[in-house]
Every structure is written in C-alpha cells, then in structure tokens.
Amino acid sequence: MKAESIFGLFFILIFFIIGCKKKSDDNLPPAINFKVGNEYTHNNDTVAVGHRLYFGIQARGTSENITNFTIKKTLENGTVVTMMDTGLNSLILDVNKVFYQNVENRAVWTFTVMDRNRMMAQISMVVYKDPNSAYGGIYYYPSITLGYQNNTLYGHFLNPSTGTVYTADSATTHCNMIDVLTYFILSDNLPSPVLSSPGEMDNSSTEAQTYYPYIANWQPRNYTLWDISFDNGNNAPLTAADFNAAQNDSLLIVAYHPIWGKKKFKWATVGKIIPFITGGGKLGLIHVLRADSVDTGIMQIAVKIQQ
C-alpha cells in the first residue's frame, strides 16, 4: 500500500476517533460536589433553630457551560421549598451559601446544576433540627423616624439592632453599623417609598448612590435583603396583629423566604410588614406606620429584629 494511502487512512481514523469523542463528550452531564471543611454544614448535622447553615458547592461543566443552579429543600411532608434559583453561563461554579435553620424537624437539601444541553447533576444532604432548640429573643423599637433623601430634619440611615438613626456625617463614621436606608422615587409613575441598604450600590443598582453619593466611600457597605413575596402575591401578607404578637424570633424565622430576598423594597407603603435579613444574618420585620409621598418627607416604622 502506498504511503499516501496509509497516511490518508490514518487521518480518517484519527478524525473518526475525535469525532466520536466529541459526540460522546456532548452527552456528559456536569459534575458537582460539596466542599470539604469543618466550617461547612455536613450531612446529618443537627442544627438549632435560627443558627447558620453554611454550604460550599463546586461544580464544573463537562461538555457545556453551566447555565442554572438551584437549591431546594424537601420537608418531611414532601413539600419542596426553592431556596435559590439562578441563571449563569460559566464552565465553573464555586460558591458558599448561607441559610438559617428553620422550624422543620428534618429537611433534605438538594443542590442541582444544569448545563446548556439541559443535562443535570445534583447532590443532597439531610439536616435535622436540634430538638432542644429554643426561640431567641428580639429587640423591639415601636417608632423610628427616617427622612427621605431631601429631608433635612431626620437622618436617612438606621442600625435596626439598636434603633439608632444616623445623619450623613454620623453615618459615615459608623458605616459598619448601617443596615437600612430610605429614599423616595416614582416607580412606574407611582409614588414609591423605598427601603434599601448601602450595599444596594454594589448589586447593579444606582439609586442609593445617586441620593447618597458619599456611601461610595464607605467600607463596608452592608447589604440587607428584603423579602418581596408578601408584596407580589406569592405569600399571604403578615398583619399588624401578627407583628404585634411576636414576642420571640419564631415569626421572624418563618416569615423570611430567601428566594424572594431582593436588594430593595419598593412601595413600602403604610401598613405593610416587610421581612428582611441583614448582611450579618439578623432576621427582622419592619411595620410601616407612615410613608410620605414627597422626597422631603419621612417614613415612620416599627422594627422587630433578632438579638
């Protein structure tokens, strides 16, 4: 056989092998695993209500980039609660996620990645509630007044754990204490009192920085998440009676839904009760008592927050 023919057959064989491998690779799902370390929550751990759950996840696309990542927990009665559902487009996923033990006795936490070919991989662990758990205490501040961005009489910034309101100058020197700020906008042509935090400016939003430009120099900029589910019909709203009856953190723990935690709460109008979680992991409720509809006005709130 001539050398040219041998070379041609060899080239065709190599091409065929590579082609088959590529076709095979296209059908391989992504890989996912838990990070290893004493700091992370482990399978079959027992955790007290309200205490931190810390999950470390690594995943890698085998044939295609990862395009979706979800975290769900399945309760003993079969109810599946979505804790996180996010899109991405990356070959590698490397995340640490913090949640807090709720009141269920047993939950199966499932972590799932899906790639561009819609192939999935998942891992799970079981977490138990400590049967000796006791609900924690709360701080209660029945009346706090905050000023909007163009109000010169009241401070705009709040430490919800102490009930302390700060003006611009004092807030800048205590920026590590600030978890809440407020301002007023028109959103969809509707008057919108807003509850937010300094960390809003680090999460694809410019309004807080526009009204309070000096927060760009703050370190740290605390980031509070606001549960909007009660405002969009996904959960039954809490009532003033619910808020007033809360004597420990049991309601605060069950009221906050992590998947609905957003960087701000628009239309924070009178009567609304808004669950939130600070960057430091403190759960709380805000009851809006007054919310003016001009940017020189005020917002009056009541606050209950974990000690």
Structural write-up:
- With 307 residues, the chain is mostly beta strands.
- The chain contains 5 helices and 18 strands.
- The chain has a 6-stranded antiparallel β-sheet.
- The longest helix has 23 residues, at 3-25.
- The protein is globular.
- The termini are far apart.
- The relative contact order is 0.14.
| Mean pLDDT over the residues | 92
Quaternary organisation of the protein chains? single chain
Number of helices: 5
The succession of helices and strands, N to C, reads HEEEEEEEEEEEHEEHEHHEEEE
Shape: globular
Domain tally: 2
Beta-strand portion reads 35-45%
Radius of gyration: 25 Å
Number of strands: 18
| Low-confidence blocks of residues | 2-12
What structural class is derived from the secondary structure elements?
Answer: mainly beta
Task: Give the N-terminus to C-terminus distance in angstroms.
Answer: 86 Å
- Portion of residues within helices: 10-25%
Largest sheet: 6 strands, antiparallel
Side by side, the strands of the main sheet go 9-18-17-16-14-15
Summarize the entry for a quick read.
The chain has 5 helices and 18 strands. Strand 12 and strand 13 (190-196) form a beta hairpin. It folds into 2 domains: 31-129, Immunoglobulin-like (Sandwich), CATH 2.60.40; 138-306, no CATH class.
Notable traits:
disordered N terminus; Immunoglobulin-like; 5 helices; five-stranded mixed β-sheet; 307 residues; 15% helix; mainly beta
